[in-house]
Structures are given as structure tokens and as C-alpha cells.
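Internal tracking record. Fields below are filled automatically when a chain is submitted to the structure queue. Please do not edit lines marked as system-generated. If the sequence contains nonstandard residues, flag them in the REMARKS field before resubmitting.
Queue: standard
Priority: normal
Entity type: single polypeptide chain
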Amino acid sequence: MTLATKRAVVSFYGGVGSVTGANFLLAGDKTRLLVDCGLIQGEKFAHDMNRAPFSYEPRAIDALLVTHAHIDHVGRIPKLVRDGFKGRIISTPATLELSRLMLPDAFSVMRSEAQAEEEFLYDEKDIERAFSLWETREYHRPFAVGEFEAVFKDSGHILGSAMCEITRAAESRGTDAEKRRKIVFTGDLGNSPSPLLNPAEVPESAAYLVMESVYGDRAHEGGERRKERLAEVIHESVKRGGTLLIPSFSLEKTQALLYELDDLCSPERISLARTNLKKDSRGQDEIRAGEEKKIHQVPVFLDSPLAIRITEVYRRHTEQFNETARAQIALGDDVFSFKNLHLTMGARESREVARAADPKIIIAGSGMSAGGRILEHERRYLGDSKNTILFIGYQAVGGLGRQIQEGVKKVRINGENVVVKARVETITGYSSHMDGEHLLEFARKAAEGETLEKVFVVMGEPKAALFLAQRIRDYHGIDTYVPVAEESVEIEL
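SYSTEM-GENERATED OUTPUT FOLLOWS
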């Protein structure tokens, strides 16, 4: 063992055997570094698991690196603080800005759903204390964390999302820079091409890769096909005179959807969508001029205060958008707004949505139908066959959204049994996660420098993680492993 390669231990305390609850610990000689501290969502025992003590002593953690602001990556940070953590919390600036919206909102939902006399996971003071410990670093700017050095690279997943590349700090590894070894925690990797964001960067010279696998066993529609499918679903909903419900995550999914609807629902650009629509038996466009007019006249309700606030954050960070989106903005297009878009902030405005005549489109959270305003809309509209529910994001096993998506005909929503008669549609192309083919290609590119020794596949359901791991082994000959919860693995770093 040289000065450049010392022992370290990586432990998998969350985000294994499951998509949610990301929580990884890298321990060196003197420094204990966490990557993410997320909420476990959607699973049968998630409530109890989130409240269980951490498997490590929070007071002994020196720093927490945050890959991005989704709740399954930040949702237990206030609990970590409540349980004694007093170290540094470090993320990109956009992640901090978004987390300032996401964490209070999560607490509000938790408070509204709490049982009588149930102790909260954390409270508002814990959130405030967490933000008092929080600092930011820009992409590609290395920073020291005890005996380690870290740098954030763009993961292309949501605004501000980052991979964490970690090496020994110079004074800890000696002078032989050529022999330094690197572990990369990918966080969540973005689906490319994204309507808004740049593609994920590829890590260079990594010895170890801890990578996500949400869609490790599945493929998404391509960029053109997803927009085509969205136009088709809207067209069919308008033709039937019904309501189109879209459960949507407030962060990233909603902004990508608004960007696409800006094209599809704007009269001056509706012709662009026509060129991609399939032809009927006579070779004519299925959406004709009169029907196009109906599409761009249909009211769209964004019924999510959190999504509305997050969209304002996106407007402040357009420098992180891809070239196409920035070019549209430069021409004066507000890519998050269009005629007939209605923003409903208050509860009274939300209730008024039901009075709007059909056809209409309602976008509301939560994306997995696990809470929020979408539940009341689902209770109201799922029982009518002229209506449609469209899923555009991952649905956790056991959750209400997954049940509806898989064809369950009777569900219970807000204390009421609802018979599902509405049409159920899914578009996977709007996922903000890489699919299996792109994850496989990502691993191949990460191995091009011939430094990659081992890939740890995490943040996926067991079937997806195991399938991806086997493909990486078979196609690229890389040592790949799927860890289990609470497992610790010794590495050289």
C-alpha cells in the first residue's frame, strides 16, 4: 500500500434494495463523510423505518454531501440534526435554494398526516438548524472535507444535482498525484436528452462507482416520442371531453412538463407537434386544424404551491439549462408559461378547479399520489371513464400511484372507496432518471480510463439493480456488486 492508497470503508445505510432513502457513509482514518440523508418513501414499513435510529452516531459525522434536493435524498437531514449531527452540510447553490422549499413543505405534509400524539420525525427548529450548517460549492470547484477532497460534477438529474467525486486530500495521500484513487457517488443520473438540462457528465479516473439503478431494467421513450405521446394523450382526452390528471413531482417533472406544454399549447407553435404525430389510414395528421385549436384552448391548472415556487427558482437559474432551452428564453419565450395556464396557490382556488368546464388538464402533486392535492382530484375524477390519469414519473412499490398504474380497479382515497374507471396512461420518457441502456453506457464510459475497479449498484428495486449489475458484468467485464442494507465494504482510497 502506497501513501496514495489507504484503507477506507463505504457503508450502505439507505438506498439499497429500494429506490428511496439514499444514505451512504464513507469512513477514512479520521473523517466520516455522509452522502445524502433521504426519506424512505412508498414502502409498507417506511413510516417506522424513517423513525428508527440511525445505524451510526450522528455526532461522529464530520460532513454531509448532498447530491440534490429530492426528498428521498434530503428528507431526513433535519432528523440527523435533531439526533446530534453538528458537522458541515455541503451542496451546490441551487440544491440549497430548492431544499429551503422542499424541507418545510415535507414537514407540513408530515404534520398534516400525523396521528394523534405521534412524535414528529423532526420540527421546524431542526430544519432551521440544518440550514445554519449548510454551505455551498459550485460545480468543478474542489473543496476539502477533513482528510478527503471532493468536487461536484453535473449529474443532469434536476436543477443543481451533482455527482460527488471524492479522493484523499493532498496532505493525506502524499505527493504522488498519479496514484490517487477516486470514489464517485453518482446520486441520481439524468435522462438525456432532457427538455431543460444538460446531460450528466462522465466521471474520469474513478476506481469505485456508486451508481443508481432506478430504471436499470427498463427503457424510456426517446425525446421526440415522449412529446408525441404527450400530444396524443392530450388529444384523446380532449376528444372524449374529459379531465386529464397528471400527478407530478413539484421538482423537475413539473418544470419539464410546463416546458413541453408551452410548445403544445401555444397556437404559434402547435404545428411543430403535428409533424411528429402518427398518420391515420389515409395518411393525414390525426390532429387536424380544428382539433389543434381545441388543444391550445384547453385550460391547464397547475395546482401545486410548491411547484409554483420551485418554478421561480428555475427561472433564476437558467444558466444551467441546455443550449436549446436557453436559446428559446433568449428569444423572449417564458418557457414555463402559456395562454390558458392557471396557477392555483390557495386551497380555495384549488377547490374551484372542479368547477371549470371539461375538457381540462390538472397537474398536481404528489408525483406518486402519496399525498397533496392530487388525491382530491383522483377521488373526484377516477370514477369516470371519460377522464384520464397520466403518470410521467416513477411510482414506488406499494404506493397508490403504483396501484393505479398497474390496473387496480378499486382504491381508497381520503377515506373513500373509489372505483377506477378512468383511462390510465404512462409516459416514461419524462423520467428524470437514466434508463437501463444509458446506465450501461454510463458505466462503460466511466471505465474508459481503465481505472474503474468496482461498481456498486444502488438506489433501485432489487430486480432493476441485479439486472443492471449483471449487464455491466456481461457487457463490459467490470466487477459489479449489489450491496445489501447495513453492509460495509473496505476499499483502497
